[in-house]
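Subject: two folds for Thursday's group meeting

Dear M.,

Sorry for the delay on this. The cluster queue was jammed most of the week, so I only got both jobs back this morning. I'm pasting them in the order they finished. Each block is the input sequence followed by the predicted structure tokens. Could you check whether the formatting survives your parser before we put anything on slides? The first protein is the one we discussed after the seminar.
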Amino acid sequence: MRKISTFLAVIAMIVISSCEGPAGPPGFDGQDGFDGQDGLIAEVFEETIDFNANNNYQVTFALNPKIYSGDNLLVYQLLNENGGIDTWALLPQIYYFEGGTAQYNYNFSFDQFSILLDASFPLNQLPTSFTSNKTFRIVIVPGDDGVNTGGPNSKISSNKVDYSDYNAVIKNYNIDDSNVRKLNKDFNIR
């Protein structure tokens, strides 16, 4: 009985180890969701905008390539610069005027985003200081699909991040914002 068991075990090992054939055809290349060893991609861009009746107090940018369905887009307004230190505030930002409220806001989809002004009174009554030369930082952060979210090889923290704090977001996603790219109507991300 022992010889038969040993014989069957040897036969099984030979059969299993010899189940090899030619390699199949290569698969199609997918879009990269990782930047090599560093983990998921997060990006930052900047734009200075003039809001007026000609652009309907709104500017829209195409996302090229499109962002993934789980990704998020955050927009921060530059509030002030003090001694080389910028202060950023997450949109929407609401301001109170004698005639009512006005706010900077944004919306996005997988292929575009808009930064806009809205008010409870006619937008043409807003002061020029509120509508001209406004700077925004746009941060694209990867979605959490359970992939590479703080594992031992990830540079992205698994801790909750305060998205209202621009500096916390930049730190959490290891974004180098020392040389932020400017946007234009046909900019490419990634």
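Second protein, same layout:
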Amino acid sequence: MASNRHLGRIVALQTLYEYEFRIQSQDKTTDVDDILSHNLQRYDSAIEDKSFVEALVKGVLAQQTDLDLKIQPIAPDWPIDQIARIDRNILRIGLYELLHKADLIPPKVAINEAVELAKAFGSDNSSKFINGVLGTAYRTLVEDTTNGSDTAV
């Protein structure tokens, strides 16, 4: 059985995917809270930490523009709107955890979880693509920042 947080990430991914799909389809009734609530109900007994899922969904949505701007130069051959919707949302979740949840989630865990989501829900090449982009993001956006702050003393 999947760990509680792994299942939480699956629900977050489903929520973000459905939300983006409905927004792009110009569904005027789209409400992320309703989508999240519905998705959480399906796993009510399996997910204890629902606040983790909600924080992940709300955090990714709040940072989406910034996350997309950071993803684009790392994957220059793939404009953000041409990346498959599922891969795009997995990248956003992984990058959000790398940049904004590093105090709670080790980088290797964030990347590994994103790769596992890609294996389960993406295409045949998704996991390699996700691993490559998030590995580069870690080296350029996280490690460089950490190393730079150590040398500035």
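Two things I noticed about the second structure. The two ends are 46 Å apart (CA to CA). Residues 44 and 50 are 9 Å apart (CA to CA).

Cheers,
T.
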